[in-house]
Amino acid sequence: MTETNKTVLVVGAGDAIGSAIVKKFAREGFTTIGVRRNADKLQPLVESLAAEGHRAHAWSCDARSEEAIVELFERIERDLGELDTVIFNVGANVPMSVLDTTERKFRKIWEMACYSGFLTGREAARHMLPRERGTILFTGATASVKGSAGFGAFAAAKHGLRAWAQSMARELGPKNIHVGHLIIDSAVDTQWIQENVLPHKQNRQPDDIVNPDSIAEVYWQMREQKRDGWTFEQDLRPWVEPW
User: Fold this and answer.
1) Are 58 and 38 a contacting pair, CB within 8 Å?
2) Does residue 243 fall inside a structural domain?
């Protein structure tokens, strides 16, 4: 372990990328808070990390609520310690055609994938700026840079999140706060992918789909970067996929 008594928040600690990040940072010595709407789903991970001697917490929070996000940050800073790293990992990858995209669906996807990222990033900055240190990382996707057929609402939200992260980086970097954006340009090895995508994938090869633990490793590497060589953006894909 390389760190002690530092705190990381993962907003959107789902079953794949988010949980892998929680696990990685906890094992590196951080006090880790994984947040999702139903925190009960994180309890097995928290208990397994506690059994290893690590400090991990699972809290419920609707990241689309300004009141809830403000309270979340205040609670962490009050009860657990100053936040060193904040990671936003909420997803909303819902395919639908242009004509099937209702106002309600578009708004919900935007709230999850973009608006909640704005709230998380702003509150992180509010707490880190007085200390003049910290790391804020956002999870992007292929849709962050390319709008594909059937994913218009998701692409709009992810483009917006990337733009918000870019603006934050340019404003906060000179104040010693590292802001980064990671583009996951691949399907992620999850149970859903295992059951619904991989059975139809032809000519499988070793390591032909990205593992959540490999993604978590890159988040850790970005947090560890020295400020004379900060990265704003990295994109990840398995070796078999074209650029």
Assistant:
1) no
2) no
Domain count, the chain: 1
What range defines the domain where residue 125 resides? 6-236
Per-residue pLDDT of the chain in tens (243 residues, 90 and over written 9): 445 579 999 999 988 899 999 999 999 999 999 999 999 999 999 999 999 999 999 999 999 999 999 999 999 999 999 999 999 999 888 889 999 999 999 999 999 999 999 999 999 999 999 999 999 999 999 999 999 999 999 999 999 999 999 999 999 999 999 999 999 987 787 777 777 777 777 788 888 888 999 999 999 999 999 999 999 999 999 998 877
* Residue 1 domain-assigned (yes or no): no
Give the helix/strand (H/E) hosting 234.
strand 233-236
Cβ atoms within 10 Å, residue 47: 11
User: Is 241 a domain residue?
Assistant: no
